[in-house]
Design brief:
The complex is a heterodimer of chains A (559) and B (167).
Chain A lengths: L2 H4 L1 H32 L12 H33 L6 H23 L20 E2 L2 H31 L7 H32 L8 H12 L1 H16 L1 H4 L7 H14 L16 H13 L1 H21 L17 H24 L4 H4 L4 H30 L6 H27 L23 H31 L30 H25 L10 E2 L1
Parallel strand pairs in A: 1-2
Chain B lengths: L4 H26 L27 E6 L2 E9 L2 E3 L6 E4 L2 E9 L4 E5 L5 E4 L5 E7 L3 E6 L12 E7 L9
Parallel strand pairs in B: 2-5, 4-10
Antiparallel strand pairs in B: 1-2, 2-3, 5-8, 6-7, 6-9, 9-10
Classes of the chains: A mainly alpha (559), B alpha+beta (167).
Chain lengths: 559, 167
């Protein structure tokens, strides 16, 4: 029995969420290739340099918010219903958050794309970070609000399902997948409050002309209060797959359920009080608070380092179950031709590299060298662009047969796709990292500045540009392969073939019975998380507010 | 809770790495004295820069081998920097005060550690030593509008004996 047979209604909502996610991925990915070719000067015929920023905004919003959040909503709906073995309580409520998120995403996307049509008054090329006082059309902010409220209601839906299950099972441990969903959503509620206040209290009234000016540093600080945790909102669903699905794909079972819980609790505690590490080079924030944010950030490495151990140990266990032997020889026994497996493992491998460049970003003095250079997109194309994106694609290969009832189509394309992505990303991100070290700025439409020479540490600037352009093109090819497989599978219609996928997930080697009960005390962890945030943010925010909510203020500047 | 022996060793190594990273930054701050941009620059009203020390931005000498440079960033130029280069003598200690008249900008002197955000209403203060004569490009590294990629400037460190005080 496949998931779609047991939970037909929930399977549909998983399909739709993943479908919207992958459509956004397609459009955002196309924009990415246009940027890679434009800013390297290889081909500049798509858009003008002024319109480049519209494309860049679309790329950021569609991929970093829309793709990731819808993919998460699909995966989490599947994880909650599967692990609690019960459907979401009300299909109508479920539809309401899906529609709310969709309307919000479409509003934001239309406002952004309006920037490409001169006759339209809609414009929002304010990039993914939408720093005030640069101002977008009010519809952009309204879209963001609807989208975020939709995601809150989705979380409520999963909590509600859990509470019902708890009523029937007062003494059982929270199943691991549900535990991961709940901790992720608690983290999301806490952190997205920052951007909700920024948009609802400041930017939306300001864009509608209800208030005259906003404090740019205050709104920027509220943005980054959310802007780093959102990174974990992309990453935690990838971890969710690595912990619960990847061990099975490798032929074994999860090494340790308790450690997985510890990792998610650490994310809940430490994700939010770190935002100042995006503001190391900002004026107006005392050095001490930057230092506190840095220590929190560094300790946030711990859950990722623990994950590296547990996931690799689980994979090795799986390989040995399949007959793998030797110190490293077991690597040969893994199913490298299985797209879901290969995608997850290559994503994890690249995440290790991205983690190391992230450690550099987090070091508050070394950060001066790389701040706002191409190094930064080099870094997050490994984390979001590979760890999350490639894992979601890999999960799609495994999940789509189960949620559609169709066998995976174009299997040979699927088999090469993760490797295509890996090669494209290797070329693009290594060149971006090196160009960043040479001081080449990010977020610019031009390959060069007349008066500025950038000195490469290793290799020349023109070679880096070429690698970025080739890498970006290969990534787009990988994306097209993926979309052909997934939508081919979805639209194929249920054939008479029986499914090859087996959706059961084996129990961990060290199960929940080995973990202390306190780990399941979500109220306690939420309370500690809030205390840490008050410590990290209380004083600087009150200092920013001391001279008035809107001062020093800036009037809106249209884009 | 059962923790595998290898898991314990790994966790200890991970914690050691984290504490080590924090230690390097702490050493950088206390030993070589790497100073962060902080709130020392104070705030200004971006709407009335004409009434502040940014009314006439440029280089001023404040002591022997000590200079202050006030820079206003606006769409899409640095003032001074873009139309005329910022000129300072070699073997000098230069403190930059940078603010914005409109949106958020960046101020990066490519090839040096001068790399700060420029936020309207705030003054970014950063001090740097220039020992040798050199030419540096200045880049705005934060998207600031459709002409962002045209926003650049120059900083020239001239030999001490050729320095005429102006910019």
């Amino acid at each position: 029995m496949a998931y779609v047979d047991d939970f037909p209604t929930d399977a549909r909502i998983v399909r739709w969420n993943m479908g919207v996610a992958f459509l956004a991925l397609g459009v955002g990915g196309l924009f990415g290739m246009i940027q890679a070719l434009h800013r390297t000067g290889i081909f500049r015929g798509f858009v003008s340099s002024a319109d480049y920023y519209t494309v860049l905004t679309g790329h950021g919003v569609l991929l970093a918010l829309v793709f990731t959040t819808f993919a998460l909503a699909g995966l989490f709906t599947w994880g909650v219903t599967r692990s609690l073995d019960r459907p979401l309580p009300s299909p109508r409520f479920t539809m309401s958050w899906f529609v709310l998120m969709l309307v919000g995403a479409v509003l934001a996307a239309v406002t952004i794309l309006g920037g490409l049509v001169p006759q339209m008054p809609l414009k929002a090329d304010v990039l993914y970070t939408f720093y005030a006082p640069m101002q977008a059309h009010p519809l952009f902010y309204i879209g963001l609000v609807l989208f975020i409220v939709g995601s809150w209601l989705a979380g409520f839906d999963w909590f509600r399902t859990y509470w019902q299950w708890r009523g029937d099972n007062p003494d059982r441990r929270i199943p691991l997948q549900t535990f991961m969903v709940l901790t992720t959503m608690l983290m999301w509620y806490i952190s997205s409050a920052g951007v909700a206040v920024e948009v609802l209290v400041f930017l939306l009234p300001w864009s509608l002309g209800l208030i005259e000016s906003v404090d740019p540093l205050l709104t920027r600080t509220l943005f980054w209060y959310f802007g780093h945790p959102v990174v974990y909102f992309w990453l935690m669903p990838a971890y969710f797959i690595w912990y619960t699905v990847l061990p099975k794909l490798s032929g074994g079972r999860l090494f340790s359920d308790p450690l997985a819980r510890v990792v998610f609790v650490l994310f809940l505690l430490l994700s939010t009080p770190v935002g100042f590490h995006h503001q190391y080079t900002d004026p107006g924030i005392p050095e001490g608070f930057k230092f506190i944010a840095m220590t929190n950030t560094m300790f946030l490495l711990l859950p990722s380092l623990l994950t590296a151990f547990t996931v690799v140990a689980s994979i090795e266990h799986g390989a040995r179950q399949r007959g793998g032997e030797g110190r490293l020889g077991w690597l040969r026994s893994l199913p490298w031709d299985e797209p879901a497996f290969a995608g997850c493992v290559l994503a994890g491998l690249m995440f290790a590299a991205g983690g190391f460049s992230g450690m550099i970003n987090a070091g508050m003095n070394i950060n001066y060298l790389v701040h706002n250079t191409l190094w930064v997109p080099g870094h997050f194309h490994l984390t979001v662009g590979t760890a999350s994106a490639l894992t979601f694609m890999a999960a799609g290969y495994w999940l789509f047969p189960q949620i559609t009832g169709n066998r995976l189509r174009f299997r040979s394309l699927a088999t090469v796709q993760p490797y295509v992505w890996f090669i494209g990303m290797t070329l693009m991100s290594n060149a971006m990292h090196r160009a960043g070290l040479a001081g080449v700025p990010r977020r610019t439409a031009e390959p060069q500045y007349d008066a500025v020479t950038f000195q490469g540490v290793v290799g020349g600037i023109s070679e880096m540009r070429l690698q970025i352009a080739i890498g970006g093109t290969i990534l787009f090819v990988g994306l097209v392969l993926f979309l052909v497989v997934i939508f081919g599978t979805w639209l194929a219609g249920s054939g008479s073939d029986s499914l090859r996928v087996n959706g059961t997930i084996p129990t961990p080697l060290s199960g929940p019975e080995h973990s202390p009960k306190i780990l399941d005390n979500l109220k306690l962890w939420t309370a500690i998380a809030v205390v840490l945030i008050v410590l990290a943010y209380g004083l600087p925010l009150s200092a920013l507010l001391a001279d008035g909510l809107f001062a020093p203020g800036s009037p809106p500047i249209p884009v | 809770m059962e923790i595998h022996r290898y898991e314990k060793i790994w966790t200890a190594a991970a914690l050691l790495l984290i504490v080590g990273l924090i230690a390097t930054v702490t050493y950088g701050a206390l030993g070589p004295g790497v100073k962060m941009v902080d709130d020392s620059g104070g705030t200004v009203d971006p709407g009335s820069l004409g009434e502040t020390e940014f009314a006439d931005p440029g280089v001023t000498r404040t002591g022997e081998n000590q200079y202050e440079v006030h820079v206003v960033a606006r769409q899409f130029l640095f003032q001074p920097g873009t139309t005329s280069p910022i000129r300072v003598p070699a073997n000098s200690k230069v403190t930059f005060y940078i603010t914005s008249a409109d949106v958020v900008h960046g101020f990066e002197v490519a090839g040096t550690n001068v790399n700060v955000m420029v936020v309207p209403g705030q003054v970014s203060e950063i001090t740097v030593r220039f020992d040798e004569p050199a030419q540096y490009g200045i880049v705005c590294h934060e998207y600031c509008g459709a002409g962002h990629h045209t926003m650049a400037g120059q900083l020239v460190v001239v030999p001490e004996d050729e320095y005429d005080g102006g910019n």
